[in-house]
Amino acid sequence: METDSLLFSFFLIFSGAALLSTVALFFRQPLLVAYIVIGVILGPFGLELISDASLLSDIAEFGIIFLLFLLGLDMQPSKLFATLKNTFLITLASSMFFILLGYSTGILFAFSQTESLVIGFAMIFSSTIIGIKLLPTTVLHQKHMGELMVGILLLQDFIAIFILAFLDSGNIEQANALRVLLAFPVLLVIAYLSTKFILIKLIDKFDHYKEYIFLLAIGWCLGLAELATIMGLSAEIGAFVAGVSLAISPVAMFIAYSLKPLRDFFLILFFFSLGAQFNVSLLSDIIAPALLLATLALSLKPIVFHYLLRRFSEKNRLAWDAGLRLGQISEFSLLIAFVAAQSGIIGEAASMVIQCAAIITFLVSSYVVVFFCPTPIAISSRLRKD
């Protein structure tokens, strides 16, 4: 791809995304839906204005790496364990239920056992974007709700990290579990020692040079991502470990704040590339399983989370509120579909089923939360809380 055509591609992607994002905001939809839709419109299965999305897809993978690096930066061990302790059993029980539900749906529509298992994995996760960003922060009732949901979503993120490690091996049924189990602790030790004896000392000495800290963080993130790849793990795992190792650093907040625009730039490209790879001609073949998955997620997730939260002594109103906010498929499900398809574990149709179901749940769940839960953008003035 030539420089001028790459420039033209970026112009189309970001101008189109800005236009559709404006429409999405008017209709109170998550912005990532706009990024995926512009990919479908401009990509090789749409208007073909961007016929070769392979380079953009490669570039977009940096968005995933930075996303997991920032996720790790937010996970300070002391705070993390306290938050997760109260939600471990809820997350474990719900995850097992939704894996079985997704797997059964895949088998019902004649997908292979491996593809059905990946569909089951994709059903585990709820959207952080809808769950957290639409949560009021100034209401006391919602502060406990926020802690509860952060715990569940963080545990789901942990599950996603380990699923990605096995998916990236290229064969989920014969993944080299021993290699992963041996390589991961070695990576943790290398990260810990490097951070303690090198990075922290450099940060303490030069912390007043913000540009240097920014470059050091990017270098550390990409360096550990590459090391993880050499060790047979995924780049995403390496980036996550790099983030966790810096979470106790006094400049962790600065690094996270500085990298978010860079992460968002690459994530727009990532979601665009997902949309660009969406083969519209197969839509008639996958719409039935996608609709069923979406319906099951939208109807059963609120009920399951309500039941589990009530079992753990939460109030009925809070349990329903949390259940509705967690009642969709996640952006992490799109990531799992992408990695599994890239690794050759699942076919194009199975990947599209996950993507289509996720998009449907984003759209519907956003309206459910805005209409029935307290949010800063609620339709009802009674429910509108900052």
Unreliable stretches, pLDDT < 50, 5 or more residues? none
Number of strands: 0
* Shape, principal axes of CA atoms: globular
- Secondary-structure content class: mainly alpha
Order of helices and strands: HHHHHHHHHHHHHHHH
CATH class bucket = Mainly Alpha
pLDDT average, as an integer?
A: 80
Residue share in helices? over 70%
**Number of domain units:** 1
Radius of gyration: 21 Å
Number of helices: 16
CATH architecture: Up-down Bundle
* CATH fold group: Na+/H+ antiporter like fold
Q: Percent of residues in beta strands?
A: under 5%
Largest sheet: none
- Give the termini distance in whole angstroms: 46 Å
Give your account of this protein's structure:
The protein has helices spanning 3-26, 31-42, 54-73, 77-85, 88-108, 113-124, 128-133, 140-167, 177-206, 210-230, 235-246, 252-276, 283-311, 316-325, 331-342, 348-372. The protein is mostly helical. It is 77% helix and 0% strand. The protein has a single domain, classed as Na+/H+ antiporter like fold (Up-down Bundle), CATH 1.20.1530.
